[in-house]
User: Which sequence fits this backbone?
């Protein structure tokens, strides 16, 4: 049973007990009131009987007219009182009424004796009758008074009895209500206390992590519901904990895996860095060291051409000339390679530099090309960035130079602008030149990759590779958006540090 | 020292008597209490107590012996040792008191003022009450009906010598009247009814309501009161319970009495309506007994110069111990 139901039931019982008690007490009070009325009536009858008893004695002493009239008047008034009182609730009322009637008859007989005296009744008979009647009258008068007095006494007892009844009822009902209160309260308290102890023990067990513990509260009340909810919660916690432990173990394994992977990656990075460094060192050394024998070959070929030109036939002269061209091209390639490697090996420090100034320097270096190509370079507002100034200048120079070089029949139009990105500046060098097939958008940034013949567009084929390397050294990226004949838009980012 | 000893001895006696009174059978022999009764409504409380089992409930075994009248119960029962307690009106007790001083009135258990009648033969020129002058009128000697006859003729202005009074046994009266041996007799039911049945229209019945207030007394011997006080107390308690029952269930009383007395219930109810069923010892009983004693002596029915002190004949302590307010005798 729910505690709320018990409490509601308890209140209902209390109200019912109170209602019953009120009804009983009210009824008892009515009885007391009735008993008091009866007591008053009995007392009045007793007083009348007492007065009549006195008047009886008074009359028997002298038998005069005054006591006779007084007696008759009192007897009549007592008769009326008895008639008015006529109440069966009065103990002995019938006897009193009977004695009153008997008394009246005897008194009439007694008075009649006096009347009959001298009218035929012998004196001795009259005297005997008078004495006998007087005794009867006196005796009945006493009986009447004692009966009335007894009736009044019973009236007193009736009041007392009803009063005691009221007291007893109040005590019984009050006591009963108190006992009921104590019993129900103690039962409820025991129930709640016992259940709360179990719950407290259970919560303590949960606090210690004993999630398999179950709170054994029986019943279907609110506390049992709380205990059930706690048990459910503990079960859920148990499952969640199990899942968390499994997840934690999984994560730990993953962490170990990642640590191994990171360690492996770091090793690979180190290896790669070393390899890259070695490669750069190799490229630098190779390109630097190759220059000497190449110059020797070129020098001897040149001497051969100058001193032994006449000794050679045409074929020989052609061979020597081609050898000199090859040596010269190789020398340029080695220079380009050396320049490419120096982007990382000989880079300057990063510091705030004005991109506009660097562009101006680049344009100054390209002045002859600009003049020759009739190019128009439009500059947008350019920011200050933290970068290697000379390399950025070279970056601008390569891109603007390419824009002028790969022009079509129309005069080159180059726009250099910059846009603010989230955490970087994006620079754009857009031209109206011959454009690039998007298929080759990546290939153009690879070293020595060329899309056109050397004769069409002279160059070492390393410019954009150097641009890519410079941008990447600054932590940015470079791409191109272009269509053949539609110009090209080279965009690179420099992080805003 | 002596005074102190007396006090202790008296206290011991009182304690012993009290224990004897309250402990059933502690001092009384385990023998039944023999009660002598007349088959009449005046025995109502005893009959009722027996019928309701109040005697048994009090732990008292009783034996009831029926007599034609209370006087016979007194004389044939109590005086001859055939009954321990009898129920009788005052007159036989008064007459008995001149012979035996060991009578003890335990209580008055019934009272009425309209139970006695004069039945006469119409063919003897008796039409009204005063016609009894010179007639032979019988009654049971030294009984309530005898005293009623005395009051009746006085009330008619007749002296005892104006009537020829004859004495007979109660049960012989109806037959004597029917046979014409007497002109009238003073008696109560069931004998009045028997006479009326015998005479038919020839019967004339006179009554005098209120002329004689008579009481029924419960009487025992002094020896019994002294030897079996516990039984006396039990008997009184049973009668008081019967009184309480009668007060609350008057119709049931009439039914029980009609059944036990073999009478008509309506007639019994009528008698009970003019009766008082009460266990008490009233003060006014003393002058009435004394007046009856004076009548007995003055009329020569008893040869005695003085009348007994009836206060000495009253056993006040028995009833007083149980119901103090039922005893109004001033002692």
Assistant:
């Amino acid at each position: 049973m729910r505690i709320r139901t018990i409490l509601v039931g308890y209140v209902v019982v209390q109200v019912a007990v109170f209602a019953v008690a009120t009804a009983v007490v009210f009824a008892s009070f009515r009885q007391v009131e009735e008993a008091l009325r009866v007591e008053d009536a009995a007392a009045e009858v007793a007083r009348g009987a007492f007065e009549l008893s006195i008047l009886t004695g008074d009359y028997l002493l002298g038998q005069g007219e005054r006591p006779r009239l007084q007696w008759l008047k009192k007897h009549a008034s007592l008769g009326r009182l008895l008639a008015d009182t006529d109440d069966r609730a009065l103990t002995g009322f019938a006897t009193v009424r009977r004695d009153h009637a008997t008394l009246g008859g005897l008194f009439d007989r007694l008075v009649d004796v006096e009347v009959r005296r001298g009218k035929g009744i012998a004196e001795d008979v009259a005297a005997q009758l008078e004495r006998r009647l007087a005794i009867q009258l006196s005796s009945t008068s006493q009986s009447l008074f004692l009966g009335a007095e007894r009736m009044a006494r019973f009236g007193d007892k009736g009041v007392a009895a009803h009063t005691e009844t009221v007291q007893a009822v109040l005590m019984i009902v009050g006591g009963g209500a108190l006992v009921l209160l104590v019993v129900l309260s103690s039962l409820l308290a025991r129930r709640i206390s016992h259940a709360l102890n179990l719950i407290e023990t259970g919560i303590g067990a949960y606090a210690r992590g004993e999630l398999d513990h179950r709170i054994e509260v029986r019943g279907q009340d609110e506390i049992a519901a709380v205990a059930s909810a706690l048990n459910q919660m503990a079960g859920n916690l148990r499952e969640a904990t199990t899942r968390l432990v499994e997840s934690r173990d999984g994560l730990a394994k993953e962490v170990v895996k990642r640590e191994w992977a990171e360690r492996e990656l770091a090793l690979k990075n180190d290896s790669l860095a070393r390899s890259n460094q070695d490669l750069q060192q190799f490229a630098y050394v190779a390109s630097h060291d190759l220059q000497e024998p190449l110059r020797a070959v070129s020098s001897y070929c040149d001497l051969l051409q100058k001193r032994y030109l006449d000794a050679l036939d045409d074929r020989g002269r052609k061979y020597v000339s081609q050898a000199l061209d090859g040596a010269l091209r190789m020398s340029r390639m080695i220079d380009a390679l050396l320049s490419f490697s120096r982007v990382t090996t000989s880079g300057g420090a990063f510091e705030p530099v004005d991109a506009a100034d660097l562009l101006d320097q680049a344009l100054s270096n390209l002045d002859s090309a600009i003049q020759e190509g009739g190019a128009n370079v439009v500059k947008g507002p350019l920011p200050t960035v933290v970068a290697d100034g000379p390399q950025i200048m070279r970056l601008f120079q390569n891109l603007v130079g390419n824009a002028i070089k790969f022009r079509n029949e129309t005069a080159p139009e180059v726009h250099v602008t910059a846009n603010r990105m989230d955490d970087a500046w994006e620079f754009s060098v857009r031209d109206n030149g011959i454009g690039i097939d998007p298929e080759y958008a990546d290939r153009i940034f690879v070293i020595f990759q060329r899309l056109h013949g050397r004769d069409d567009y002279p160059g070492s084929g390393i410019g954009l590779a150097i641009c890519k390397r410079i941008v990447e050294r600054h932590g940015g990226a470079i791409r191109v958006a272009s269509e053949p004949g539609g110009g090209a838009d080279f965009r690179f980012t420099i992080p805003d540090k | 020292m002596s005074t102190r000893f007396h006090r202790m001895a008296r206290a011991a006696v009182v304690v012993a008597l009290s224990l004897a009174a309250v402990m059933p059978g502690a001092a009384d022999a385990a023998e039944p209490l023999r009660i002598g009764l007349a088959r009449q409504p005046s025995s109502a409380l005893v009959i009722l107590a027996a019928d309701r089992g109040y005697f048994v409930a009090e732990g008292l075994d009783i034996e009831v012996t029926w007599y034609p009248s209370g006087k016979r119960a007194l004389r044939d029962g109590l005086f001859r040792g055939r009954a321990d307690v009898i129920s009788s009106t005052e007159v036989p007790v008064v007459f008995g008191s001149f012979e035996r001083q060991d009578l003890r009135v335990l209580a008055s258990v019934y009272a009425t003022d309209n139970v006695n009648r004069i039945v006469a033969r119409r063919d003897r020129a008796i039409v009204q009450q005063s016609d009894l002058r010179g007639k032979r009128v019988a009654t049971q000697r030294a009984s309530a009906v005898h005293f009623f006859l005395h009051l009746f003729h006085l009330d008619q202005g007749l002296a005892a010598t104006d009537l020829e009074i004859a004495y007979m046994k109660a049960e012989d009266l109806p037959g004597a009247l029917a046979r014409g041996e007497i002109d009238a007799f003073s008696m109560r039911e069931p004998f009045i009814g028997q006479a009326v049945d015998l005479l038919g229209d020839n019967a004339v019945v006179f009554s005098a309501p209120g002329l004689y207030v008579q009481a029924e007394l419960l009487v025992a011997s002094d020896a019994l009161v002294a030897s079996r006080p516990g039984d006396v107390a039990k008997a009184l308690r049973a009668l008081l319970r019967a009184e309480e029952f009668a007060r609350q269930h008057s119709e049931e009383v009439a039914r029980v009495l009609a059944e036990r007395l073999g009478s008509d219930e309506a007639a019994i109810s009528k008698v009970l309506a003019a009766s008082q069923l009460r266990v008490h010892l009233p003060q006014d009983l003393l002058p009435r007994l004394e007046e009856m004693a004076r009548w007995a002596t003055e009329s020569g029915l008893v040869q005695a110069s003085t009348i007994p002190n009836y206060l000495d004949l009253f056993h006040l302590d028995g009833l007083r111990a149980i119901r103090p307010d039922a005893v109004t005798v001033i002692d």
